[in-house]
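Subject: sequence -> structure tokens, single chain

Hey, anyone have a minute? Need the predicted structure for the following. Not urgent.
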Amino acid sequence: MIPFVKMHGLGNDFVIVDDRDGALALDLETRQALADRRRGIGCDQLLVLEKPTNGSADVFMRIFNPDGLEAQACGNGTRCVADLVMQELSTADIGVETIAGILPSKRMGDVVSVDMGEPLFGWRNIPLAREMDSDHLDLSWGDYRDPVAVNMGNPHCVFIVEDAEAVPLERAGPVLEHDPLFPERANIEFISKNADGSLRMRVWERGAGITQACGSGTCAAIVAASKRGLVDGAARVHLDGGPLDMEWRADGHVIMTGATALSFRGEWAQ
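Reply:
Had a minute. Here:
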């Protein structure tokens, strides 16, 4: 039996298992089975807690997409793990280590905030298959074109559109994720500006498909929106699952703040 915790951030849901004692054997098949919504528990990402490798971190979080392959970053997952570990340690401030670095996280009343670090823009850093201006990708799908590429620990491609609600994401997402321009595939976001100055975002996550929310995708969205002049470094971003408050600070770091929730605890039989 594998004990687990099911949590979500705005409907972006996670199965969290604790392997800080190194006793679990989560091979590819097991990871896929855990994430399966019909035969397993079901989740957008599987998060595995391990002992930190850096003395300034409190926990190491390993991230797997439903296809069982490892991902580099997960903003809402970081907030959920931070919430869980902060309760465990009776503190309001921890460091969550990932393969993309240490993400400082803290509780702020009823919400959890995480410093997602600095975005990367160089074509090799995204990465792209060939040299290109990451602020204006030579990429299109139908009438949607000229996206911004951002790396937030994982690759993102952000389209600025008139109405994110009108995008046929179920058709555009899988094609764009697997475009040859992205050798490691990419998360695909479509964003538009609301009348009140906030942003609307819909997301197709690499290896997961359409999700209710995507933390690293929302980070990419605030960066892309700032670069294109839609916002001035900060905005509330409305996702299918609810809002996240985003800020791209003057020091270059992207801060994400929002709600987390515990769904249930249980045990899974291998």
